[in-house]
Design a protein that fits this description.
Layout lengths: L2 H10 L2 H14 L15 H8 L12 H11 L29
Length: 103
Amino acid sequence: MNRNRAREIAEKVTREELVAMFKRAQEEIADWESPSRINKGLSRGTAFNILSKISDVPFDKYHILAKINMVREFGEYLDGYDISPKIKNKINCVPFHQEPNFI
């Protein structure tokens, strides 16, 4: 997904939809050690830990960039939005991995 499409979705998405997206991603992702889409130096598990802390900040105060990154990283688990997958580029680096702290 490109950044512009992620921004359009991030402007419309609600807190409940994001929480459901993270719960669905938690259930369906098997390889948490694969590189993150938003930061190739981190694993998906680490990105999950960082981005899934949406309960710590009031939703109206959540920065649009954080919501864009949530949608770019885990948007395929978001219900009700047309999200076409992007072709992945292969990068030869080992990402930092951290086991995800599930909700």
